[in-house]
Amino acid sequence: MQRRHSRSQSGRRSEKGSSSNVEPWHVENNAHCNGGLRNAICSLGPRVKRKVWVGTLGTQTDSFGQKLRRDIDRRMSKEHESLPVWIPDDEFEKCYDEFCHQVLWPCLHYAIPDAPKTAQFYQSSAFKEYHAVNQRFADVIAANYKEGDVIFVNDYHLMLLPLLLRQHPKLPHNVPIGFFMHVAFPSSEIFKCLSMRQELLKGVLGADLVGFQTANFARHFRQTVSRILSYEALPKGIQVPDGPVPGPRPGSSTDGRFVDVGVYPMGIDVNQLQERKKDPEVAEWIRVLQERYAGMKMVVGRDKLDGIQGVRQKIQAFEMFLEKNPEWQGKAVLFQVALQTTEANEVGGGVSDLVAHINSRFSTLTYQPIVFLHTQDLTFSQYLALLTIADAFLVTSLREGMALRAHEFVECQEGRHRPLVLSEFTGSYSYSGFRSCIAINPWDARGTAAAIQQALTMSDDEALSRWEDLHNHVITQTAQAFATGFLSRCVRAHLEHIQPDVEDVSVLDAHRVLPRYKHSSKRMIFIDLEGTLYNRDVSRDALLENRFEPPEEALQVLDKLVGDRRNEVWLMSGLPRSMLQIIADRIPRLGIIAENGCFIKTLGSSQGSGEWLNMVANFNLTWKSSALEILNYFTERTPGAVVEEREASLVWRFWTDPTKPVDSPDRQWARWQAAEAQNHIFDRSVYSYAC
């Protein structure tokens, strides 16, 4: 689905159908589509044998008859590898203009309105239409799916689609699905303001792989799922506890499924951009602009006209730059290229009046400080010419996924090497290669004004050094690298998910085993203690008393097995060796694995018991103190919770009352606390140990 101007404002050409020699419709490229994604997929060329784009048309469609729709379906499929999704105009408007742009877009970019002034955000009824549009996409995809296809779902407009596809009756239950969030993803404190938060998260988790532009966005998503859904969030993904598992046996398991979460930064197709720069029209416009603005410094920006892209903050900073540096009045020009968005968001951005105010304040007969252009007023060749001769490129986004226009600027500056002024709140800035820009806080107008001054007065040597770092990153983080990495990982994740679970061990067939056991001359036997020979009392009192009383029946079984000289018997346990020493003293010849492999007691002999080996002697266990501090904090706030500190590990029993039902409020609170504690430990570990 494409972000673009409202379909209610999309005009039709009056000359269509006016002559019998003119086809009733034709195709035009949509200037507001996701060009980055299209370029990335198309850059793979023949490596993608079959690709089909599924999306909506950029115009109203209610008046289209069935014959015209069939003709459009046929030609779009044959000539453009595309499948239109037919959506009633009113349904589309409520989904796209209201829910996507007035609810999801602000939320994902940290722009939560003040309640109760904006009830539409908190009480939007358009989620019904959002669900309906996602369902229409699912139906079209299901009707055209072929075995071997990988389904790539892009961006926040279709957050429900992965689960709808996973549950669709016409699709295989194990169809490979990847979801990529092209924009930012906020902190859980922001996302949980949405009333439909659970539905959106569960929808995304229908995918095999969920991708984000930066590690921060991926971490926010994992934490949000953990805190809102109380699912187990691991550094590599999410363990979804409910629902069928994709696999070779439909409906064979309800234990849940694992969803990979990864980071796949979008890039540009550098080779294609280099070819576009060679267009003679670009060279001609470079000449024209250099003549027209001779002796002036040119600052260029390109953004959507909404509050998120920070255009208002940019223009205010440029005004302050001219105020603080009057010597630049008449010598510095800001070229602001504006991408269209919905009318409501454009009005909310409040840019037009501010541009008029500054131009009236600083303009002279031969000078206008701000040149404000809409994309429909500017060809791509003209835009490339602007990037090529710019003295600085200014990005002031208040929050953004990946600022690919900054990447384009870097490559267009191959001969001049002028600096990039970049917001700290863009995804691009989170990568080390882009730290050679001039970083700004867009909320700080004085700081941004000073950055403009720094950019325009920077020496050639410093500018070249910074540009080389930026260039090396851009040619590495390319569109091809993004598409290849995401699709390859999606396929691998899918294959991993459909493999039989190694924990899914079949029931022991005694009739097959016993004859072989009886006639074998040497046997190695591994026996699990907890849950097999021994059901440990995990009540709070028993845990606090550190009580360990292995049943006599279990000890007799072990003693009998060890007594057979043909047997080598190993007891596996997660308990510490201080507890298991009780068993070791009773049955000296028994081999024991303690703390899940951290310590091993070798097999004893007739002369005595074996010795304990420390398998983690060379490991760094300093993490325990900080993890124990976190767990103690949550233990105080979780009724009935207990921390078991062992030699090389920690166990937190966040729920010790088996008498209460699974859906009890206390148990749900304990699960939420467990998810919070896990998030804190992961964050601390990554920060301190880079693990």
Automatic annotation (TrEMBL):
One CC-aspect GO term: cytosol
Entry GO MF terms: alpha,alpha-trehalose-phosphate synthase (UDP-forming) activity; trehalose-phosphatase activity
Pfam families, sorted: Glyco_transf_20, Trehalose_PPase
Gene Ontology biological process: trehalose biosynthetic process
Domain of life: Eukaryota
Location of the region described as Disordered in the Swiss-Prot/TrEMBL record: 1-26
UniProt record similarity statement: In the N-terminal section; belongs to the glycosyltransferase 20 family.
Protein's name according to its UniProt entry: Glycosyltransferase family 20 protein
Organism: Schizophyllum amplum
